[in-house]
UniProtKB/TrEMBL annotation:
This is Bifunctional uridylyltransferase/uridylyl-removing enzyme. It comes from Photobacterium aquimaris. Residues 1-335 are annotated as: Uridylyltransferase. Its cofactor is Mg(2+). Has four distinct domains: an N-terminal nucleotidyltransferase (NT) domain responsible for UTase activity, a central HD domain that encodes UR activity, and two C-terminal ACT domains that seem to have a role in glutamine sensing. GO terms for biological process: regulation of nitrogen utilization. The keyword S-adenosyl-L-methionine does not apply. It catalyses: [protein-PII]-uridylyl-L-tyrosine + H2O = [protein-PII]-L-tyrosine + UMP + H(+); guanosine 3',5'-bis(diphosphate) + H2O = GDP + diphosphate + H(+); [protein-PII]-L-tyrosine + UTP = [protein-PII]-uridylyl-L-tyrosine + diphosphate. Residues 695-778, 801-873 form the ACT domain. GO terms for molecular function: [protein-PII] uridylyltransferase activity; guanosine-3',5'-bis(diphosphate) 3'-diphosphatase activity; phosphoric diester hydrolase activity. Residues 454-576 form the HD domain. The lineage of its organism: Bacteria, Pseudomonadati, Pseudomonadota, Gammaproteobacteria, Vibrionales.
Length: 873
């Protein structure tokens, strides 16, 4: 392979500058860098040489376009390019600087130069300004000011560039105090975009907390205030120890290597380590293993780097604050005890080697944080001491008896959930205490359901439990905000939250394995056997309530009775509902909605009634039917309907219809049906959100493929079905109810109702749906979800219950409906659950005679579904 280094470009292009020759030079250079990267060449050399190569290219083009003849013009590198750092897809940020506005012919040449750079597929960011314009824009725009701070002269008039540097280095341009505070706010906003955690499953190498931007922020502040142009110069000002300087450089280089590997793999600029690119980046970085092992190893190393950078960033910005804002003055400390003191809103250790001498005092510090709401964080010198002590620990803190007592005291502190546990996780203290936790730090979860690593998800479960103490969250979590405050032993729930996913990544059932760990931990920490058993039960059953609510027919008394039997009593039910809601909300910020809240509430209250009535007593179904009919009839009579007409209509319907609908739904349906004449289908859509979604009621003559046509039409409108009640009248009409949500998980806007009703009516009239097959989102293509069909046993045996797991491809439900129609299978109810990339759907079905499917019919259905779904996957 031809080696075209930056210094050889001029020779390579001596004859002529053409688009093809420039592309050839760039391609050869990029290929050589890929080869050098795989040969483990220094990443510093690689990013520097790429910057130098682009320098030479631009200087040559500057001459080619005759800009040397413009006496006051200068070409300036700014931003990352100004720092001399370029990755394969990095932006080449340029400033064409002049002392006066450009004449037309010069402006045309500038435009031609930029167009050529775009044609070379360089990511160019450019601005053409006078010195005065730069200063004026920079004063109003922090990003521009930051880019100008990193200006680097390439070619042209040095005097023009000198005028700029004098102006931007002036204290009047951006006073260092103002610049520092603006950069702090900029970082706070950026971190919030990534949920204030380094542990996102698809992190951004540059912008995530602990990423390259956190290092840049330190450099920008140090440059503005101290004039330090590098990390090394920053260390000379006494803010960084030699070891911390080397650590920061090591972290930066590691992040550079990951970013370089990602850019090799991409065609367009991006810094996100997405699921589909993680395996190839891991391969470039020489991580190997079966399945996802290579990615897991790479990502765990990556998260360790982010945490180290985040800690150093936090520590140094605190020291900068003292130097820049407080001008070196420090508040007088307030003693908390012999070991700790409060300085402002930061806690400090009073002794320089406290944590090394008595490691258990690390937990004392977090006890103070939990007990004192004035404490906002840890002082920089103490954080530095904590980092040192943590690395020198030769055993886990749990092995120290005094530490065990302090940990349980922390768990029982009411305010520990809000701040102390979050800081303990951020600074590696939980991992230093609990061996099992250390194994899940940075543990990946390869799905589109979770957005955080296992440890970050678990810490957010704990944080969510604290919200249940706050009346402000009552509208979002009404049951939990009523239940949680009255729990006598909240530590049971907190320990269950810590352990509920702690066995992930080990293989086997993580709920079973985690339950064993939880029980042993509780006994070791002095809990009674009954309390230890409750914690272990919660860990083992932490998915039971969400699975039952979302994937079972919770209007079936048998389902509720079986769930109540597993729960046992109201105390366990209260613990479980709190853990379930906290778990769901910590999985994905967009996951919790009023639909899930309603499902869990209905299951909670149904189970509570069953437990209070007694598990051995069966509910009075006839009484419930009469009650619903009486209330619905009262509504209808008040609207002028004749009781005799209501009675005649309801004689056509089966008992299940009155059990599975509220009296308001019965009245709503009846109003439309009593006014209806002819065979045209009736489509109703609820104007108000029902259980968090929009209820679609369909009345039509029962026909084959009806379900398939309905779901196909709804799919065309990009709507998702979450629940379906499929019922037939005694005289051959359907009484189908679909619970439908829009792509944002909300009820459908009312202005869409007319169009949806019109399309459904037309499709059901002609019994045909012209469905265009939508492409699967790119992110789904990375996942392999084997299609599985399982048939569940029932007590009565009159119906067949089926579970289907498959990749959640567009049109999946329509395919399933078409198979049911093809095999003369009638659907009676469905629960549609999407968990990231997985569809986990539940169906109650019967054969053509209205009975349960035979073994042969089940086998045929399984084979046909798998074949049909996989055919276009």
């Amino acid at each position: 392979m031809t080696d075209i280094s930056a210094t050889q470009l001029s020779d390579y292009l001596d004859d002529a500058i053409t688009l093809d020759s420039l592309r050839s030079a760039l391609n050869h250079f990029s290929e050589e860098q890929k080869h050098q990267f795989k040969q483990q060449k220094s990443i510093i050399d690689l990013v520097t040489e790429r910057s130098q190569f682009i320098d030479q290219l631009l200087i040559r083009l500057w001459r080619f376009y005759g800009f040397e003849q413009q006496p006051d013009l200068a070409l300036i590198a700014v931003g990352g390019y100004g720092r001399g750092e370029l990755h394969p897809l990095s932006d080449v940020d340029l400033l064409i600087l002049s002392q006066h506005p450009l004449e037309e012919d010069v402006a045309n040449n500038v435009s031609a130069l930029i167009t050529l750079l775009w044609d070379l597929r360089l990511e160019v960011g450019q601005s053409v300004r006078t010195v005065d314009e730069c200063i004026a824009v920079g004063k109003d725009d922090l990003t521009v000011a930051t880019n100008l701070t990193e200006s680097r002269f390439l070619c042209g008039n040095q005097q023009t560039f000198h005028q700029l540097t004098v102006a931007i280095n002036s204290p009047q341009f951006w006073p260092s105090e103002t610049f520092f505070q603006a950069k702090l706010e900029e970082q706070r906003v950026r971190h919030a975009r990534y949920h204030d955690t380094t542990y996102n499953l698809e992190p951004d190498i540059k912008s995530s907390p602990g990423g390259l931007r956190d290092i840049h922020t330190l450099s920008w502040v140090a440059r503005r205030h101290f004039g330090a142009t590098s990390l090394l110069e920053m260390s000379h000002h006494g803010f960084l120890t030699d070891a911390e300087y080397r650590e920061l450089v090591e972290c930066q280089n590691a992040l550079w290597r990951i970013r370089f590997a990602l850019h090799i793999e991409l065609r367009r600029y991006d810094n996100r380590l997405t699921f589909d690119h993680q395996p190839s980046v891991a391969a470039h970085l020489d991580y190997h293993g079966e399945g996802n092992q290579a990615v897991e190893m790479m990502m765990k190393a990556f998260y360790r780097i982010l945490r180290r950078v985040a800690e150093l960033n936090k520590m140094l910005l605190q020291l900068f604050d003292e130097a820049i804002i407080k001008h070196g003055t420090r508040l007088d400390p307030i003693a908390l005890n012999d070991d700790f003191q409060l300085r402002g809103n930061l806690i400090e250790a009073t002794k320089p080697a406290l944590f090394q001498a008595r490691p258990e005092t690390i937990l004392d510090m977090f006890l103070h944080i939990a007990q004192n709401s004035d404490i906002e964080g840890i002082a920089a010198p103490t954080l530095r001491q904590l980092r040192t002590a943590r690395r020198r620990l030769n055993r886990f803190l749990i092995e120290i008896p005094a530490a065990q007592e302090k940990f349980m005291e922390l768990v029982r502190q009411p305010n520990a959930l809000q701040k102390a546990f979050r800081l303990m996780h951020r600074h590696g203290v939980i991992a230093a205490y609990l061996p099992q936790w250390s194994h899940i730090v940075g543990q990946m979860q390869f799905d589109l359901f979770h957005v955080y690593t296992v440890d970050e998800h678990s810490i957010r479960v704990i944080k969510n439990l604290h919200k249940f103490n706050d009346p402000e969250h009552h509208s979002q979590h009404p049951i939990c905000c009523e239940v949680y405050p009255r729990l006598i032993k909240k530590e049971i729930l907190i320990l269950a939250a810590i352990f509920h996913d702690i066995a992930k990544g080990r293989g086997g059932d993580h709920s079973e394995l985690g339950a064993v760990d939880a029980y042993d931990f509780c006994i070791e920490h002095g809990l009674s056997h009954p309390d230890a058993e409750t914690v272990a039960w919660l860990v083992q059953k932490h998915l039971l309530m969400s699975v039952t609510a979302q994937r079972r027919d919770i209007y079936d008394p048998e389902v509720v009775a079986e769930f109540a039997k597993q729960v046992g009593d109201e105390e366990h039910l209260d613990y479980l509902v709190c853990l379930t809601v906290a778990d769901i909300c910590a999985t994905n910020q967009d996951l919790w909605n009023s639909w899930k809240r309603t499902l869990l509430a209905e299951l909670y209250y149904s189970t509570q009634k069953t437990l209070r009535r007694g598990l051995e007593k069966t509910p009075d179904m006839r009484g419930r039917i009469r009650h619903n009919q009486q209330l619905a009839s009262a509504i209808l009579r008040s609207k002028g309907f004749i009781p005799r007409d209501i009675e005649v209509l309801w004689r056509r319907f089966k008992a299940d219809y009155f059990l599975r609908h509220t009296h308001k739904q019965l009245a709503w349906h009846a109003q439309a049906l009593l006014k209806h004449s002819g065979d045209k289908p009736i489509i109703l859509m609820s104007k108000k959100a029902t259980r968090g979604g929009t209820e679609v009621f369909i009345y039509s003559k029962d026909k084959a493929k009806l379900f398939a046509i309905v779901v196909s039409e709804l799919d065309k409108k990009n709507l998702s079905i979450h629940d379906a009640q499929i019922m037939n009248s005694k005289d051959g009409y359907t009484l189908d109810t679909f619970m439908v949500l829009d792509p944002n998980g909300k009820a459908i806007n009312e202005n869409r109702h007319v169009g949806i009703i019109r399309n459904l009516t037309k499709a059901l009239t002609v019994m045909k749906s012209e469905r265009k097959i939508r492409r699967a989102p790119r992110k789904l293509l990375h996942f392999n979800v084997p299609t599985k069909v399982e048939f569940l046993s029932t007590k009565t045996g009159r119906k067949t219950m089926m579970e289907l797991v498959a990749l959640d491809m567009p049109g999946l439900l329509a395919k399933i409906g078409a198979v049911f129609a093809e095999l003369n299978i009638s659907l009676q109810a469905a629960k549609i659950t999407t968990i990231g990339e997985r569809a986990e759907d539940f169906f109650i079905i019967v054969n053509e005679t209205g009975g349960r499917l035979t073994t042969e019919q089940q086998q045929l259905l399984r084979q046909t579904l798998i074949l049909t779904i996989n055919k276009h996957a």
